[in-house]
Amino acid sequence: MSSFRKRALDEFSSHKSERFHYEKQPVSQYFGQNVFDIEKMRRYLSSEAFGVVQQAINEGVKIDRKIADQIASGMKAWAVERGATHYTHWFHPLTDATAEKHEAFVDPSKNGGVFENFKGDALVQQEPDASSFPNGGLRNTFEARGYSAWDPTSPAFIIDDTLCIPSVFVAYTGESLDMKAPHLKSLQQLDKAAVDLARMFNPSISSVNVMLGIEQEYFVVDEALFRARPDLMLCNRTLIGHTSAKDQQLEDHYFGAIPSRVMCFMKDFETEAFKLGVVLKTRHNEVAPNQFEFAPYFAEANLSIDHNLMMMILMRKIAKKHKLKVIFHEKPFAGVNGSGKHCNWSMVTNTGVNLLSPGKTPVNNIQFLSFFISVIRAVYEHNYLLMASTASLGNSYRLGGSEAPPAIMSVFVGKTLTEVIDSIERMAITDDSALNEDVKLNIVNKIPEILPDNTDRNRTSPFAFTGNRFEFRAVGSSVNVASSMFVLNTAVAQQLTRFKSLVEKEMSQGLSKEEAFLKIIRQYITESKDILFEGNGYSQEWHQEASRRGLKGISDVPEAFKVFLDKKTRDLMVETQVLCERELEARYEVLNELFIKKLQIEARVLGDLSINHIIPTAIKFQNSLIQNVLGIKEIFGDPEFRQMSERQILSIRKISGYIQSLREDTHALIQARKIANAISSYPERAQSYSANVLPYMSKIRTTVDKLEMVVDDELWPLPKYRELLFWR
Ligand code: ADP
Ligand code: MG
Asked: What number does CATH give the domain 591-725?
């Protein structure tokens, strides 16, 4: 067997199931021990400083430098006690990764020794330079240096003896250079818009928080096998590899017993997650072989995203101890399911009411319907933008297949709510006639009766209502979900504001409050019902129906990015001040830049695999066939030889054909890249990559996968799908 693959298989078989992170006590005893949470703030801060932090968290009040010094000193005392030696501003640049630049606490003291030092200035602001992050041209001038600023709404935590301080990353000119800042702004906008509307029902409401529960799907692969695949190592996905005879068709992996090596890894990871204050609730096998999922208990959206990113860091680190690799890529293996992050999204008031939860009384249900339909209206209005916000090279391999959400936006609400929506739409509301009480109460009353049992789920929908929340399923598994959530929040804020002003207008023209609400609810239904779809999102009929309804799907990634520059998007983002024009343009640039760079890497790796791994292997195998045929000829001579070697000769011809097309296609791939690389504008270059480079990727793959089926298994250089996916 090829020594590369053999070594990997040998090494892998020596890997054991074992644990490294034991905690003997119950979880409640050590939960949150690595987080500077409220309880620790109370212990380590003066009551004055504690009060200020609370105000900063709850009301966004600014913290002055003097108090910042006090907070820094308390935080340092706690962190040093827990063994931390360094601190860092932890921020989320536009790359989907997280960034950290560590500073030691120690400073030299006058007497020649050192002392632990951490001042308010260092807590509040850092200048990591970080000029190498993609910024879409926002930092081309010297004045546009970037700095990171503490986000007190997400508590500091310790990973690897380093105090991590969640931060936003912005340019001195004010533009945001990260994922967190626009997300925080969108949350503020939604808070304001939702409070304004909710106060029409309950004046004591003073804040509305978005709640987010992120289900994270991922693959786990043995480290030795992973390292024997250059494509996995460099691209996090397999660029070649024939599907295994058995993959997920028996549906025996989903919810199956978790394999013991993975279980050891999961337990270790969960132990550390609990210490970081993350309530990991659910773990299970997913549909594809060696695909898994975890879901934490939902939390405030900003915190929830930070937690998700912390978990990704933790999982990679802990997997290493288990000689495993965690793969967050959207589509690491062809032919089996890809991975996403399902974003469960709801709005909760400071009075503890979930605005997406149907109430027990008609009035509560009018409130519910107002928020519910505003979300649907928002998704309709910006359906393409929302879908495009999930677009990336990785997700393009996942979305639109028949096992991930389709790339056309639609909303599923279930049978009960469909009936409610239909009857409201049929209801007659005129400005001068009062509503028929019976009809009104019947419709609105019907909701709580049926909803609690309403368990119908439609897995083919990208955006589904699931009883008291919406679940957005199109977001990719490797990304920071803020990239989509800020769009959703902003779009919903826009519709809530509009909804309220429409209701007020009706009331000022004489309709009662209830009538006005129902009228606008109905108007929103009529305006947005084209986004509602209860059927099979994978079906061909839906594609046709969707295009009749004017719903556009994502078919080309760089094309989809263009929506960020549309007038409608600019109006939405600029009006709400979530992103200004320059920031939108910068983001557009960065999206294209990342698309190009990722595809460029994939194309290089594939070219390398084809030329340096696959073609030489095919030649070696072909030579053995040729030797064999020559031998037969020597022994038996014509015409017997011809008869005996008919199939062999056919194989030799076939392999020659494959080798020939691999050489041609790889050459064409390189040429296509060269042409694209000569284009200076990122968006145009991305388009050229998508139109001219991408097609060769699948063409080459098809040929290689055919070769994998004919070449002697002993010679094949790379671990095969069956080995990667069924290694336990
Ligand atoms: P599924 O059946 O969709 O796979 P899971 O149990 O895996 O469900 O995950 C559901 C996620 O939704 C969890 O993170 C859960 O905490 C979250 N969730 C539950 N209720 C709400 C809510 N009201 N708002 C936001 N997220 C919620
Ligand atoms: Mg789940």
From this structure: 1.20.120.1560
Torsion of CA 152, 343, 465, 362, to 10 degrees: -10
The pTM score is 0.95
- Confidence (pLDDT) at 300: 97
Residue 238 has pLDDT above 80, yes or no: yes
Indicate the angle between helix axes 513-528 and 415-426, nearest 10 degrees.
Answer: 110
Distance CA 667, CA 672 (A): 9
Lowest-pLDDT choice from 57-71, 209-223, 702-716: 57-71
**CA–CA separation, 200 vs 209, rounded Å?**
17
Q: How many CA atoms lie within 13 A of 180 on its CB side?
A: 27
Using the predicted structure, report yes or no on whether residue 432 has a pLDDT greater than 50: no
CA 235 – CA 628 distance, rounded (Å): 39
β-pair partners for 210: 347
The pair phi, psi for residue 345, each rounded to 5°, is -125, 130
Best mutation site among 208, 214, 215 for ligand 1 pocket (most ligand atoms within 8 Å of CB): 215
pLDDT in tens, 670-726: 999 999 999 999 999 999 999 999 999 999 999 999 999 999 999 999 999 999 998
C-alpha to C-alpha distance for 33 and 39, rounded to whole angstroms: 10
Q: 31-178 sits in which CATH class? A: alpha beta
Other beta carbons less than 10 A from residue 418's beta carbon: 14
How far apart, in whole angstroms, are the C-alpha atoms of residue 483 and residue 489?
11
Pick from 141-145, 250-254, 449-453, 518-522: least confident:
449-453
Q: Does the pLDDT value for residue 435 go beyond 60?
A: no
| Ligand closest in space to the Cα of 286 | 2
Contacts of 599 (CB under 8 A, 6+ apart): 393, 689, 690, 693, 694, 697
Looking at the CA of 339, name the nearest ligand.
Answer: 2
Span from the CA of 691 to the centroid of ligand 2 (angstroms):
35
pLDDT at residue 253 tops 90? no
Start and end residues for every CATH 1.20.120.1560 domain found in the chain: 591-725
- 254-286 burial, b at 16+ Cβ within 10 Å, e below that, comes to beeebbebbebbbbbbbbbbbbbbbebeebebb
pLDDT of residue 395: 95
Nearest CA to ligand 1 atom 17: 213
Residue 345: nearest ligand to its CA? 1
Nearest to 149 by CA among 182, 131, 171, 116: 171
The Cα 484–Cα 490 span in angstroms is 10
> Can you tell me the distance from the alpha carbon of 623 to that of 661, in angstroms, rounded to the nearest whole number?
18
With a 6 A CB cut-off, is 295 part of the ligand 1 pocket?
yes
Instruction: Give tens-digit pLDDT for 579-613.
Output: 999 999 999 999 999 999 999 999 999 999 999 99
Say how many residues make up the chain. 728
CA distance 486 to 187: 8
Residues paired with residue 340 on neighbouring β-strands, in sequence order: 476
Q: In which band, very low, low, confident or very high, does the pLDDT at 449 lie, cut at 50, 70 and 90?
A: low
Domain with CATH 3.10.20.70 in the chain: 31-178
Is 70 exceeded by the pLDDT of residue 155?
yes
